[in-house]
Each structure stands twice: as C-alpha cells, then as structure tokens.
Predict the structure.
Amino acid sequence: MLIGEFNGNLFEMFAILNEEIVVGTISVYQRFETMCSCGLEIFADYRRKGFGKKAIIQVIIITI
C-alpha cells in the first residue's frame, strides 16, 4: 500500500506500508509527458517479500 496521492507533479514520493509500518519509499520523476522514472528503497528487514514489486505496480496504475 502506498501513502500519498499522485498529483501529476514532476516529482512525487510515497511511503510503502505493510500493516501501518513503513517498509520503504518509492519516488516517481516525470522525465517526459509519456515517460517517468522510479526510485525504489525497501528497508533491509523487508526485502525479498514482494513489497517493491507491489509498489511499482501501484505506481504504474496511478500514473496512467
């Protein structure tokens, strides 16, 4: 689950939650009108549990 709302800004940052615990962050940078870059950080204790994949999928959904 992501905390925050995509406002169509050039840059957005979201917290990645698991049951109200922040497990990482993901940032979205709009490079062009049809292209953006994502920066993903999952904290060490929560890696390899699918949080990054779920966050990237949610970013794709909210930015289309």
User: Anything to note?
Assistant: The chain has one domain: 2-63. Helices lie at 51-63. The longest helix spans residues 51-63. The first strand starts at residue 2 and ends at 3.
